[in-house]
Design brief:
alpha+beta, PH-domain like, Tumour Suppressor Smad4, ten-stranded antiparallel beta sheet, binds adenosine-5'-triphosphate, Lipid_Phosphate_FormReg, EC 2.7.1.91
Length: 715
């Protein structure tokens, strides 16, 4: 970008308020040339200092593209110089532990010192319209003539390094006290690498594509290569989580499923479920990686590993929904999907082509469409809004109550599991409610920060919670608090005139500065049992009495008043207390046991299906945007069904629209957002897949656990 003297002055004036540091450095490129460098909250600007009176070549690196900054002091180690970030050779690992590295640029003399910026701005690929992040390394040396003493020059370089690192990690920078802005070291990550994922290249992918970025971002880690199926699950069941910042899976979705289920088998599941999980793609499906990238606005269709690693090093810890799954003999925890019918069969039957990577799904789909079959059974669900069936029988309009389920921790001594739904027949005209609620949440920031959140919450599938987060407090305490001051609920469902209310206190976005503490998602062990011991379910207008479900006993509670259009609406609430004797069970208050009928307020569809899929992330693969309006923590299960009657041609065309998510507009697809579902296959044909793991076609049901898990993503 070229700036004239005048426009440069204007630009400089525009960023003046934002200005943090200014200085002159020698930019080490082919030759050393002195540059004027300006650091603002949004970017690092630099231009050549020249005597020319015409133009400056002004360049800028956006802070949002920077993943790290290192200081260098050449005199310590001139002989080991290298021109790029060095990391990844086998000698640099011992027992999977990464050694600390020092970046040493070439072409500097023995007394050189300065700082190196690692950035990954988007560039357009030649001959394609795709934007891809491309590595940029900028080496700035403090000029020897500007500040005489080496110590002083080192201080200058360290200050720039610290501030750039604070900014790139989203940490606060106090311009009035620059010297005290020192970013805390980043937390140590445990990387689990599955050598059998996808085409079996996970370790090579890690070494060549992931390790360099971890080095550049100064993230310490240890790698463990899994030795057998089930290894990751065992590790997660037994390791001391407090020793780690989080766990990062370098694999496909299968290892992630193992990891999550290992965590959920711990006695302290209620807190360890908040252990941050990162996800880097090395498998054939990589659905969660794609969903995290998609949510972050990063590409999913090219250089997935690079973009996923970029997200990982720039991440914040954000909530993610899980779904508790019941099959006749087991309880499982799912982060992605339950599929039945053709999608499950394609997934399972194409396992044998796993060396093809994602192409296995295309091969499997063609095979299954040619041999198209239907699957007899029953699909039942608890919709969040009015449900209109598409089967053309004429009698299937079902009005369901609008509801929302949230997992809440009401105080440091109590965990609460809430479901709130308003009655669609309340006759309220307004679709806007203001709900005031306050809560104290278990420590999530870990550093004792207190947050104030104000949420404007829109539902109808999109839980886009516009949370203003004001973080104050400098840490030090054990228990952080989140106080939700107000939650305004607007325009709740564009397709329904029903009014609704929910408690959006679940799924707070957690902005935990990586490295500020270990285990940002964990609460202290005293609080650990609370969620298990005292679980409440509040459900407006719930049935007058209900039998105890899964260890929950029912207790009627007080009513709540909602003010809307000056009308007062009283809504009954119900509270479920978990039986303390069964304190280790994850509460599933929306589900009846599998050998009983579903609750009477569910919708049930019988017939022949081509597929029924329950999805809670956007992607099932990089070319399968299965639930385009899903979000990591929208608290919803996106249920889709196709009934028998669709032709092979139409099905093929429908599958071709999957990559853009346009299948949801197809007249053949019934899409409904639900809190819980049950699938009861009537034949032994086919498969049921939970997060890509196969199960026999037996009855299966699931219920959302909104925002209970924590993932490393960018929200
Ligand atoms: N060392 C190992 N040897 C054999 N199997 C392993 C090993 N480590 C992990 N596994 C198993 O490999 C299975 C598949 O792994 P993963 O999901 O990572 O790859 P994938 O199936 O190619 O990817 P995707 O699930 O995205 O299609 C997991 O269920 C896991 O239990």
């Amino acid at each position: 970008m070229a700036w004239s003297h005048g426009s440069l002055a204007l630009k400089m004036a525009a960023i003046r308020d934002d200005l943090i540091l200014e200085g002159e450095f020698e930019l080490l490129a082919k030759k050393k040339l002195t540059h004027r460098v300006t650091l603002t909250r949004s970017g690092l600007f630099f231009h050549l200092v020249s005597n020319s009176s015409t133009t400056y070549q002004e360049k800028c690196v956006k802070i949002s593209d920077i993943i790290g900054c290192h200081g260098f002091e050449q005199c310590l180690n001139v002989n080991k110089s290298t021109s790029s970030a060095h990391h990844g050779s086998s000698s640099e690992y011992k027992n999977g532990e990464a050694k600390p590295f020092r970046y040493i640029p070439q072409n500097t003399d023995a007394s050189a010192c300065g700082f190196v910026v690692f950035a990954y701005p988007f560039k357009k690929k030649l001959f394609s319209n795709k934007k891809v992040r491309t590595k940029q390394v900028l080496v700035f040396e403090v000029p020897t003539d500007s500040v005489e003493l080496l110590d002083k020059r080192k201080t200058v370089a360290e200050t720039w390094r610290n501030i750039i690192n604070c900014l790139s990690r989203g940490l606060p920078v106090n311009v009035n006290d620059i010297a005290s802005c020192v970013p805390p070291p980043r937390g140590r990550m445990l990387l689990l690498i599955n050598p059998h994922s996808g085409p079996g290249k996970a370790y090579t992918i890690f070494k060549n594509e992931i390790a360099p970025l971890l080095f550049e971002a100064s993230i310490p880690y240890k790698t463990i290569v899994t030795e057998y199926a089930g290894h990751a699950g065992e590790l997660m069941k037994t390791i001391n989580l407090a020793e780690w910042y989080g766990v990062v899976i370098v694999s496909g979705d299968g290892l992630l499923f193992e990891t999550i289920n290992g965590i959920m088998q711990r006695d302290d599941w209620a807190t360890s479920v908040k252990f941050p999980i990162g996800c880097l793609p090395a498998g054939s499906g990589n659905a969660l990686s794609c969903s995290i990238n998609y949510a972050a606005g990063e590409p999913v269709d090219s250089f997935l590993v690079l973009h996923a690693t970029f997200v990982l090093v720039k991440h914040r810890v954000v909530p993610m929904d899980l779904v508790v799954i019941h099959i006749p003999d087991r309880t499982l925890f799912s982060f992605l999907s339950v599929t039945w019918g053709i999608v499950a069969d394609i997934d399972f039957e194409s396992e044998k082509y796993r060396t093809l990577g994602e192409a296995r799904f295309t091969v499997g789909a063609i095979k299954r469409i040619i041999g198209l079959r239907s699957y007899k059974g029953r699909v039942s669900f608890l919709p969040v809004a009015e449900y209109m069936a598409k089967d053309g029988t004429g009698s299937s309009k079902v009005l369901a109550k609008v509801r929302r389920l949230s997992l809440d921790s009401r105080s440091s001594s109590k965990g609460t599991f809430n479901s709130e739904d308003s009655n669609s027949s309340l006759g309220c005209n307004s679709k806007i409610f203001v709900a005031q609620s306050e809560r104290q949440l278990d420590s999530v920031g870990g550093a004792g920060d207190s947050f104030v959140k104000t949420g404007v919450v829109t539902t109808g599938g999109d839980d886009s919670c516009d949370l203003h987060e004001d973080s104050s407090g400098s840490g030090g305490g054990d228990a952080g608090q989140i106080r939700k001051e107000s939650c305004e609920i607007k325009d709740i469902n564009t397709t329904s005139q029903d009014t609704q209310l929910f408690d959006s206190t679940s799924s707070p976005e957690l902005d935990v500065p990586p490295g500020s503490i270990n285990n940002p998602g964990l609460v202290d062990s005293e609080n650990t049992t609370n969620l298990q011991q005292d679980v409440h379910l509040k459900e407006h207008n719930a049935q007058a009495s209900r039998s105890p479900v899964n260890g929950c006993s029912v207790q009627h509670h007080s009513s709540m008043t909602i003010i809307s259009d000056a009308k007062e609406i009283s809504v009954e609430q119900e509270t479920y207390h978990v039986n303390k004797a069964k304190s280790t069970a994850v509460p599933t208050p929306l589900l009846h046991p599998l050998d009983q009928d579903v609750p009477s307020n569910w919708v049930t569809l019988d017939g022949n299906f081509i597929l029924a899929i329950a999805v809670y992330q956007t992607h099932l693969g990089s070319e399968m945007l299965a639930a385009p309006d899903a979000h990591l923590s929208d608290g919803l299960i996106h249920l889709m069904m196709i009934r028998e009657g669709i032709s092979r041609n139409a099905l093929m065309n429908l599958f071709l629209t999957f990559d853009q998510g346009r299948h949801i507009y197809s007249p053949y697809v019934e899409a409904v957002k639900v809190l819980a579902f049950r699938i009861e296959p009537a034949t032994k044909n086919g498969n049921i897949m939970v997060d890509g793991e196969r199960f026999d076609p037996t009855p299966i049901q699931g219920q959302i656990l909104p925002g209970v898990a924590r993932v490393m993503a960018i929200k």
